[in-house]
């Protein structure tokens, strides 16, 4: 079990550019979550998947944001036409629905820090 | 909607002091409660959890008791160490309805000085 990994760890982009982040969950976990954390705040939920199905999206997820989990394994989060307000840490977490496999706890990756200049 | 309120930081303590970080919640269902910790330069780690009223979660000398009557889940440690310096987040999730996303408080930064 190597934990949740995210790539890249840091991304600096110019306003108006598109960016894509990747998350690899713990291998046996079927749920995958994306959160956003700005400085001095707690993480805020963006969206989550169960296997390849996107089950819930928060109202924070504007039309410029899209997430996929094509084969129920890794996930990507894309932000189109980035704005300075998108600068934040983007966190990925995964969990299992099986109480025997760590229960419903969410395990977090190290995050991708996005800076939009 | 559901929400979590935790005490503002930063909190600065001397080594071996007693720590309390207050956390209260508002939830429509019967949530599970969590404390996560974020050490400098690292990701969020689950510190402890409680899934029903009067449960006590404990780990690494930290503990918190799920108090339904006061909708609280205060974090305590009897004797803090410099290595406990981190940001602590209280969170809830309504697991009974299928592991809904976590709702976090704003975090409390703890600094422990030798």
Summarize the structure.
The complex is a heterodimer of chains A (about 120) and B (about 110). With about 120 residues, chain A is mainly β.
Task: Describe the protein's topology.
The complex is a heterodimer of chains A (117) and B (114).
Chain A: E1 5-7, E2 10-13, E3 19-24, E4 31-37, E5 44-50, E6 53-57, E7 65-68, E8 75-79, E9 88-95, E10 107-108, E11 112-116
Chain B: E1 3-6, E2 11-14, E3 19-21, E4 23-26, E5 32-38, E6 44-50, E7 56-59, E8 62-65, E9 75-77, E10 86-93, E11 103-104, E12 108-113
Keywords:
heterodimer, A: 117 residues, mainly beta, 7-stranded mixed beta sheet, 4-stranded antiparallel beta sheet, 11 strands, globular, B: 114 residues, 6-stranded mixed beta sheet, 0% helix
Describe the structure.
The complex is a heterodimer of chains A (117) and B (114). Chain A has strands at residues 5-7, 10-13, 19-24, 31-37, 44-50, 53-57, 65-68, 75-79, 88-95, 107-108, 112-116. Chain A has 117 residues and is mainly β. Helix content of chain B is 0%, strand content 49%. Chain B has strands at residues 3-6, 11-14, 19-21, 23-26, 32-38, 44-50, 56-59, 62-65, 75-77, 86-93, 103-104, 108-113. Chain B is globular and about 45 Å long. Chains A and B meet through strand 4, strand 5, strand 9 and strand 10 of A and strand 5, strand 6, strand 10 and strand 11 of B.
